[in-house]
Amino acid sequence: MNLYAVLKPIAVALMRLGFRLEGRGGHHVPPTGPLLVVANHSSVLDPPLVGGVCPRQLTFLAKAELFRVPGFGALIRALGAHPVRREGSDAAALRTAQRLLAEGKALLVFPEGTRGEEGRLREAKPGAALLAMQTGVPVVPAYVAGSGRAWPRGRRLPKPAKVVVTFGPPLRLPRATGPGRKEQYEAASRQIMAAIGGAASAHRARRSLEIH
What we know:
Number of domains: 1
CATH class: Alpha Beta
Number of strands: 7
Low-confidence stretches: none
Radius of gyration: 17 Å
Shape: globular
CATH architecture: 3-Layer(aba) Sandwich
Helix content: 40-55%
Largest sheet: 7 strands, mixed
Order of helices and strands: HEEHEHEHEHEHEH
Distance between the termini: 44 Å
């Protein structure tokens, strides 16, 4: 049994205790084969939150600076994280992501790149769309609600808040062909964010029903 499988039940129990973590739409996640999970990003908690409720073991890319933190860097590497530079293109990270998908793994990516405000979807950077179009793997959108309240950017410690992760139906993006590939990647990026927005709408609709 790997470290991920050992620590996941413990981490999920703690996240349910501290954040009343709930996952919805897990049936949309294919049980096997290469997979790209794309999610909005408003907190450092997002990777473990999404991984905690996802029925598949996820691997993910993390900012390179984290791997230089003594102890923590070794831990997240053991849990399947791989470093990526936040500024500029990172061809090595793209190759790593392609290799992980070629091995049949499920990769978690945050198309927005950096953390933003809770509840606000931002424009995606081209990396996720490029990766999806080059590999042809299914893309499952996920909307994380509440993590930005649980641990917003700039706050030193987390606080109790309800967090729900909603997975939406998978989509496949066609390979870019011919001229105008930049425009095709931009269109695919918008499609990815729209799919995350669809998962957000499903979350809000469910929440509205629960309130009433």
